[in-house]
Write a structure and sequence with these properties.
356 residues, alpha+beta, BirA Bifunctional Protein, domain 2, 12 helices, binds 3,4-dihydroxyphenylalanine
Length: 356
């Protein structure tokens, strides 16, 4: 067979190969060790030098042409295969989803939303602050100077020192948002600030990251009666009971004066906590009238402005409301736990439609 017809023959086979396996067979039959082109190469040895030179060059040209045709066909076949796959794996995104319950809304997210709903109804806006705080907002401005003993109780996570010797912290509470709000807004101020907080502490009831909610009201006439009313309304709405007894226990926080811890009545019958009945007490939050030093640090005149603040553990009230025993499970991302304690995605809490 002449070289030309060999070439035509092989190129026709390449063009006819309908998949990669067939193409590979053509490659082996032509360029493989015992392939047609290779067999011709072996014949070169028996030729006279002049003849060998011409035949060798022609064979090399043929070899290159075949190799090129093979790789072009291979690329084309791969593209065809991909197109076929894309066409066959097409899905109709307009099809209704199967009722497959995977994750659920985390109890903390649910309670967060519930609290926002309740305070929103009372005229509070939601405020935010950074997780990484400076000393001023987390401590100083909240009437906790460097030597203040309350600083030790916070088990603070510190960042490395900056060139100027100061260290940023992971905020130990949501109270710094009080300062940020006073510095950026004009009274009357009525905000809540739900968010993550951090302390180096870990056991059944403490995790290094937890959630708090801060509340702040500042204007010219707000007094403790308002504080009591707002928190009473909140507790009734949140625990979904007609009434709840509250005990305002004298306490101490550097940023409030006077300060109170608030307990609500409950019963522990059958090992389950029931809010609003019985005569046991359960502490649920800290509160007080905002300290004049804090109002001053917030850029406001304490002889003109006053108000109240409160701080509550979101995870803690989620545990109480939904009977969840171990705080640590909140942050373990265990799907079985979430399916048990979580909420359906479309079960959005509203005051009108019910919170839980
Ligand atoms: N920041 C306090 C803490 O994390 C909680 C707190 C107590 C906040 C009383 C307040 C308050 O605003 O009035 O322990």
């Amino acid at each position: 067979m002449s070289l030309e017809s060999l070439e035509q023959d092989i190129l026709a086979q390449v063009a006819a190969a309908s998949d990669e396996a067939a193409l590979e067979a053509v490659r082996i039959a032509s360029l493989g060790k015992k392939g047609a082109v290779s067999e011709r190469m072996k014949e070169l040895g028996a030729m006279a030098p002049e003849e060998r030179k011409a035949a060798g060059a022609a064979l090399n040209v043929l070899k290159d042409k075949v190799a090129e045709a093979l790789s072009a066909r291979k690329a084309a076949l791969q593209e065809l295969a991909l197109e076929a796959r894309l066409a066959s794996e097409k899905i109709d995104v307009t099809l209704p989803v199967r009722p497959l319950q995977q994750g659920t809304v985390h109890p903390v997210s649910q309670v967060w939303e519930e609290v926002v709903q309740i305070f929103g109804d009372l005229g509070f806006a939601v405020a935010e602050g950074p997780h990484i705080e400076d000393d001023f907002h987390n401590f100083d401005a909240l009437n906790m100077p460097p030597e203040h003993p309350a600083r030790q109780e916070h088990d603070t996570f510190y960042f490395n020192e900056k060139p100027d010797g100061t260290r940023m912290v992971l905020r130990t509470h949501t109270s710094p948002v009080q300062i940020r709000t006073m510095l950026s807004e004009k009274p009357p101020i009525r905000i809540i600030a739900p968010g993550r907080t951090f302390r180096s502490d870990s056991d059944m009831t403490h995790t290094p990251m937890f959630n708090q909610i801060e509340g702040l009201v500042i204007d010219e006439t707000t007094h403790m009666g308002h504080l009591k009313w707002v928190l009473h309304e909140f507790c009734k709405a949140f625990f979904e009971v007609d009434d709840v007894k509250m005990r305002f226990r004298a306490s101490h926080f550097p940023f409030t004066e006077p300060s109170m811890e608030i307990d609500i009545n409950c019963s522990w019958e059958g090992g389950q906590v029931k809010i609003g009945v019985g005569d046991s007490w359960l502490e649920i939050l800290g509160s007080g009238m905002v300290h004049p030093n804090v109002i001053k640090a917030g850029g406001l005149d304490p002889s003109k402005y006053q108000g109240f603040a409160f701080g509550m553990g979101l995870d803690r009230v989620a545990m109480l409301k939904y009977g969840i025993p171990d705080l640590r499970a909140f942050f373990e991302a265990d799907l079985r736990w979430l399916r048990h304690y979580g909420f359906k995605a479309l079960q959005v809490p509203t005051l009108a439609g019910g919170l839980s």
